[in-house]
Design goal:
The protein is α/β, with parallel strands linked by helices. It is 35% helix and 20% strand. The strands form three sheets. The protein has an eight-stranded mixed sheet, sandwiched between helices. The protein binds zinc ion (ZN).
């Protein structure tokens, strides 16, 4: 199997006034200006008066605001966009993606980024958000074409910043997001449970993470019947749960943060088989695990001083004579019994046991990521993801991280009250409701039954994981939504250390 090329582009910086020499070193240049820029803004840029004229002649409110070439040896292509001062992170990232996209068919070379007309702090944020879009666009996604088209963007040059821009966080988040998108895009015959585990083990070896894999035998000993119910339909015995540990200081320390991801390599729906179109993109049903792993990588790249565990629940959900079926009664690792209703609700089954194992180790806070329910998409579209927590006081923090990172989330309630809809005659509860109303809320309420009550826990239903035209700074169908988000939870909201 191919391996992802995770090394980011090189980023050069030239501070202070933008002169024609530094502009001439760029093949293309993205220029971000305030809405209705004054003449004084244009005068900070070579050939500024010409640019002002071009903008005047361009259609108002268009994106890009204008494009033009400069009179230098490379005939640098300038692609400009404007932003209102109060533009949200999502709007900033979306503009950056569209500007980067506008150079897609150009000559390969150095991409300049220049943000003028904003205060220093704002400028740094806008430059970082534009770098995020450039790093996403330049990353080589899986391709099995005989002739590959290499990225147009070979290096990045930041021009005209008031102070040195710290891009370390953006670069770490880009690595994590790129890894997540790469994994989700991989064809399911290439990325199977064996090659996925190999890739994770190699990453662990090269980053100094502790790696442990619970195979079906070990999981059977742990009583992980819910995970195994799904895995028993596989053609081989490759399913398992992987646990990674990142310990920057004391090896034996408890985790401050646990990350859990749903890794369904391919979801046929199982015995309750999906129809064609619903099954078509189900190689992306492992994106929760990819996001957990990508977040873990970003934390490790930044060498954050927190202890983190990452749990990846990896299996297929297949049809076959051994596959689980409706009305099977299954016992999970915490002893709770589940009446199976629909085999396509496999995500909550594999997560149930993984959450039991993860919360047993009492992390400071536990996050899980899953492409879990269609009803979350129905509720918030594919532009937002749903968040659910057993600590409702966290919701303002969780929502704010969505606004800050540009990966926006919407809060939903969970709790015992909703478990009434999952009342079972034969087991502790049903896996899902045959009525299927508010399934995202019922699924999250179901999952809460497998999290130790003493563990603060956040569940993300990744409805924004799959967008045909990309989302925010990312142009690919699979968005890797969740990596930037979680980094904002950690770094901006400091949740893992807060008194939760
Ligand atoms: Zn499913």
């Amino acid at each position: 199997m191919n391996q992802p090329e995770l090394q980011n582009l090189r980023i050069f910086q030239k501070l202070g006034r933008v002169d024609s020499k530094s502009v001439a070193s760029c093949d293309q240049l993205l220029l971000i200006l305030p809405a209705k820029p004054a003449t004084s803004v244009f005068s900070q840029f070579p050939e500024g008066r010409k640019l002002q004229q071009v903008m005047k002649l361009s259609a108002p409110d268009s994106t890009p605001a204008f494009t033009t070439r400069l009179a230098n040896a490379r005939q640098t292509l300038v692609v400009a966009g404007t932003l209102k001062k109060d533009a949200t992170a999502f709007e900033q990232l979306s503009l950056a993606r569209k500007l980067v996209d506008a150079v897609r068919d150009q000559r390969a070379g150095c991409l300049g980024i220049c943000v003028i007309g904003f205060d220093t702090e704002h400028q740094a944020v806008l430059i970082n958000n534009t770098v995020a879009a450039a790093l996403a666009a330049a990353f080589p996604m899986p391709s099995y074409k005989r002739k590959r088209s290499p990225s147009v963007i070979r290096s990045l040059r930041l021009l005209g910043a008031d102070a040195t821009i710290d891009t370390a966080r953006t670069e770490a988040e880009a690595k994590g997001n790129n890894l997540a998108r790469w994994l989700a895009t991989m064809p399911p015959n290439m990325l199977n449970a064996v090659t996925y585990a190999d890739l994770v083990r190699n990453l662990a070896a090269s980053h100094g993470w502790n790696y442990k894999r619970f195979d079906t035998k070990a999981l059977s000993k742990l009583g992980a019947g819910a995970f195994l119910a799904v895995a028993q339909g596989n053609d081989d015995d490759s399913a398992g749960i992987i646990r990674l540990r990142y310990r920057p200081n004391k090896k034996a320390a408890k985790a401050d943060l646990g990350l859990v991801g749903k890794g369904i390599i391919f979801d046929t729906g199982g015995t309750n088989l999906k129809p064609f179109l619903s099954m078509l993109d189900m190689h992306g049903d492992m994106q929760g695990s990819a996001v957990a792993l990508g977040t873990f990588l970003a934390i490790s790249e930044l060498k954050l001083p927190i202890n983190v565990d990452c749990w990846l629940a990896i299996t297929e959900n297949r049809i076959g004579p051994k596959a689980y079926k409706s009305q099977d009664v299954i016992t999970a690792a915490n002893g709770k019994t589940i009446q199976t209703i629909h085999t396509d609700a496999e995500g909550r089954m594999v997560l149930a046991d993984t959450l039991v194992l993860a919360s047993r180790e009492k992390p400071g806070i536990l996050f899980d990521y899953a492409t879990l329910t269609g009803s979350c998409v129905n509720a918030v579209t594919t532009r937002y993801s749903g968040v659910f927590t057993n600590r409702p006081a966290l919701h303002p923090h969780l929502t704010r991280s969505g606004e800050k990172s540009g990966e926006r989330v919407w809060p939903f309630p969970i709790g015992k009250e909703f478990m009434e809809d999952l009342k079972s005659e034969i087991a502790d509860f049903m896996q899902c409701s045959p009525k299927n109303s508010g399934d995202h809320i019922l699924a999250a309420s179901f999952l809460s039954e497998f999290v130790d009550e003493g563990t603060p826990w956040v569940h993300m239903d990744l409805s924004a994981s799959d967008n045909d035209k990309g989302l925010a700074h990312v142009g690919s169908k699979f968005t890797g939504f969740g990596v930037r988000y979680t980094m904002s939870v950690i770094l901006d909201e400091n949740l893992f250390k807060a008194n939760i």
